[in-house]
Amino acid sequence: MGFQRNCLSFFIAVAISPSLTLAQQPQEVTNAEPGIYNLADLFKRADTVALVKVVSGDTENYKVAIYKATIVKSFKGGAAGDIVFFGPFIGERLGWEYILFLRKVANPIAPEKSASANYGTIQYAEVFNQGYTSMMTSYECVFDGKEIAQRCDYGVRVCTDYIKIPESMPTFPPETKKRLSGADG
To answer: What is the phi/psi pair of residue 37, to 5°?
Structure first.
């Protein structure tokens, strides 16, 4: 059973004044809109697809956020019990489980500081499509069914603005034509 949530994306434009001091000079930032993919295409594009449990994270010692996770169940590239390092987006919850679609990063990443608290130089994988290939799992009570045991189960949060799932896959709450068209409600 699946759980899905429609997502809204907000992008903010910032005007930068030409009178900034040297210490205030802006850095170049690239903001890219994520692509729209169907689930089968994501699976093909990913090197690793797995249900993982996040065991730790480091946002201090690397250029990007790096998480360490244990593979609970592998669907592609990896085995249950393997450790995987992934990034670069912040916000993953320690101790929670996620379905991840990952692509290998060509070069290992080294810590920026020489501290004993980091993972050292590691090979990591990237959550791609602007982070939408990281899908949180949780126990939810939103499913069809007359009894509690039929209404509650584990589900996966999918942003259906960017990830298209097969029509045959049940979603809860059910998608409506009104929500699919972008109308409020």
So the answer is: -125, 150
